[in-house]
Amino acid sequence: MRNASVITRHGRRSANALWNRPDSDVTRKQEAMQSIIRFVAVIFLCLFLFQQDAHAYLDPSSGSILIQILLGGVAGIFVLFRIYWRRIRRALGLYKREVSAETGEQDAGHDQP
């Protein structure tokens, strides 16, 4: 069997080399992600291997501060949810179109006796 070759703008390459070549963007992203994961793993490993005693005291007010932080975060999430509620409804397809001004004007006349 003869190896077929393909002419590309970079020169002549074999067809098998073109089919077996991985996508360079994907491999670069994968390599970058793997290097980040390795770095984080080494940092955590160093933290656990070289840990020392803290000699710290946590008083009752520390617990109340943590509870305030958690409750503030929950309240912030609810505020953001309230602010973007209309956009969320539109994205889910639950948004009803508002009544036009003409229809509202016509209905306003019927409210009076």
Largest sheet: 2 strands, antiparallel
Total helical segments: 5
Strand percentage, roughly? Answer: 5-15%
> Helical residue percent?
55-70%
The number of distinct structural domains comes to 2
Structural class: mainly alpha
Task: Give the overall form.
Answer: flat
What is the mean predicted local confidence, pLDDT?
A: 76
Strand order of the largest sheet: 1-2
Secondary structure layout:
Elements lengths: L4 E4 L2 E4 H6 L3 H26 L10 H24 L1 H8 L8 H10 L3
Antiparallel strand pairs: 1-2
Can you walk through the features of this model?
Helix content is 65%, strand content 7%. It has 113 residues and is mainly α. It folds into two domains: 1-50, no CATH class; 65-107. Strands 1-2 form a two-stranded antiparallel sheet. It is flat, with a radius of gyration of 32 Å.
